[in-house]
Write a structure and sequence with these properties.
Oligomer: single chain
Strand content: 5-15%
CATH class of one domain: Alpha Beta
Number of strands: 7
Helix content: 40-55%
């Protein structure tokens, strides 16, 4: 199945910001409900420990991303003595079209999580945003040229970056987008912040479920496979920079990952490659 570079509706600049926010709120609720990225918590902790990084910059956060749940998982592991490494000190949530109310709400339960109020282009991250960069279910939005620019920007800044994708270019995953599109019909009354307009766009004029279906299928068709990620990485100009690409399969569904980091930043003798392999 060949990759298709097509548009996703909710990311288009002509979509009203209020409707886009309601869509990203619903997407965020669904990802939180599924805890889709919980299995990679040990992987992330190992990478951050290896790099000696205690700050995170999440790009394309949408309605908040998975970091609230991930930060809780990492904290729980530390309290249980399973992860004796570094403690994350700060997490920035950013987006090109920031859903400010959702990002603010995402940061309220944790003093470590802060939303960045200005628009952030993943290809040109502001220099004041320092830390390990992450992207969840968003790298597929970018063409190969723009995807390369994201990685090049991280390499030029000397920052590590982690790309994680739960979507896959596979018939089974595409098929799962149909029940995924039914989720708003069931869960909309519990999505916060509550908005009467979300009821309108879900039940009376079902734009949100239709966007879920359309964008979900397109997301799968746009998702890069590990070999395609390798081809993009091979075009990035970075001297002492290491790349790790593969699939993390300890959860309910495989998660494709791409992790890049400056070799000089690896702390001590702890190998990121070893961490990735033992976590897979």
């Amino acid at each position: 199945m060949r990759r298709v570079q097509f548009i996703e509706l909710h990311e288009q600049p002509w979509v009203p910001s209020s409707l886009r926010d309601e869509i990203t709120d619903a997407l965020q609720f669904g990802l939180n409900l599924a805890k889709a990225y919980a299995p990679i918590a040990p992987l992330l902790q190992g990478v951050l420990d290896s790099l000696g990084s205690c700050s995170v910059v999440d790009l394309c956060s949408g309605g908040g991303g998975p970091w609230l749940e991930l930060s809780r998982n990492l904290q729980s592991q530390k309290l249980q003595g399973d992860a004796p490494g570094l403690q994350i000190s700060h997490i920035w949530l950013t987006d090109k079209y920031p859903n400010l109310r959702a990002l603010e709400n995402a940061g309220k339960p944790s003093a470590k999580i802060t939303y960045y109020p200005s628009s952030v282009d993943a290809m040109k991250v502001p220099s004041e945003l320092r830390g390990f960069r992450t992207m969840f279910t968003s790298f597929h939005h970018f063409s190969p040229e723009d995807a390369r620019a994201i990685l090049q920007n991280a390499a030029d800044a000397g920052e590590g970056i982690g790309i994680f994708e739960i979507t896959r270019r596979a018939p089974l995953t595409i098929g799962l987008m149909f029940p995924w599109a039914l989720m708003p019909f069931v869960c909309t009354p519990w999505i916060r912040p509550f908005r009467w307009s979300r009821l309108l766009w879900t039940y009376l004029i079902p734009i949100i479920p239709l966007v879920f279906l359309f964008d979900g299928v397109v997301s799968c068709l746009r998702t890069y496979r590990p070999q395609e990620l390798r081809e993009i990485v091979d075009t990035v100009t970075a001297g002492e920079y290491q790349w790790e690409i593969g699939e993390h399969s300890s959860g309910k569904a495989p998660i494709t990952y791409l992790i890049g980091y400056p070799r000089a930043c690896v702390a001590g003798s702890h190998s990121i490659t070893t961490t990735l392999r033992t976590s897979s």
